[in-house]
Amino acid sequence: MHFRISPMQPSADAVSTMRSMEDVVEAIALDSVLVKLLRSRLSPRPDAGRAQPFPASHVRPLLSERERAALDWADVLTFGEPADVLEAEYTRLRRHFDEDEISELTVAIVALNEWRRAALQLEPHMLL
Predict the structure, then answer these.
(1) Which of 58, 81, 87, 127 could disulfide-link 49, Cβ–Cβ 3.0 to 4.6 Å?
(2) What is the predicted pLDDT for the residue at 67?
(3) Helix axes 99-122, 65-79, angle to 10 degrees
(4) Distance (Å, rounded) from C-alpha 44 to C-alpha 65?
(5) CA distance 127 to 44
(6) Is the peptide bond before 55 cis (omega within 30 degrees of 0)?
(7) At what angle do helices 32-42 and 99-122 cross, to 10 degrees?
(8) How far apart are CA 54 and CA 51, in angstroms?
(9) 92-127 confidence digits (pLDDT tens)
(10) What is the pTM of this model?
């Protein structure tokens, strides 16, 4: 596997910051299945180069409305949807999550997106 730079090469402070983001994801009170779905949704894929809409239509009916709302929120935050879409998704999210859960969900999505972006830059073969 060819890396542009070793993922562990950056300064200790940079690595520590990234690890602390992972600690936040692990410490949040969201259920573990939802966190796994988010990880799957936001992980780089060799065939994609960047996150693609998830889950596939055949998987989507198997998810709860809460899980679908969380994954759709991840899409809105990841792909920078227009304000009206953002507002509509937030309203939908509020039906399934309280304010603390939305904050935790949002922080988890941001942290996982940062890991994805770093992985894609450090491992350019993921873009092929």
Answers:
(1) 127
(2) 92
(3) 50
(4) 25
(5) 9
(6) yes
(7) 40
(8) 8
(9) 999 999 999 999 899 888 888 876 666 556 555 444
(10) 0.69
